[in-house]
Amino acid sequence: xxxxxxxxxxxxxxxxxxxxxxxxxxxxxxxxxxxVGRYLPHKVRxxxxxxxQAETMMGHxxxxxxxxxxxxxxxxxxxxxxxxxxxxxARLKAYLLNVGAVVAFNLVVVATxxxxxxxxxxxV
Length: 124
Fold this sequence. Notes:
By secondary structure, the protein is mainly alpha-helical. Helix content is 79%, strand content 0%.
C-alpha cells in the first residue's frame, strides 16, 4: 500500500512540472493534465491518469488498499522523466519556426497568385 502523503507529494511535483514546462493552467494535477493533454505522448497521459485514479482511490479507505504501489511508482517515474526532458526554450523555438514557415508559405502563395493574375490580365 502506498502512503497518501507520498502520492500527494508526487502529484504536486508533477503538477508543478506541468505548469512550469508546458504552461498548464489549473490547481490540481487532473486539471493541468486536461489542459496540456495533446502536448504529451499517449504513454505519459496514461501514466498521469494512473496517478489521478490512485489519488482518487486514496480518498476511500477500502479502495486505498487496492492501489498498486509499484504501478503508481513506475507511472510517476516515467511521467517525471519525460517532463524533465521537456525544454521550454526548445518548445518556443519550434513554435516560432512553425509560425515563420506558415507566414513564408502564405507569402509565396499570395505572390504566386498576384503574378498569375498579372499575367492573365496582360500586365506582365
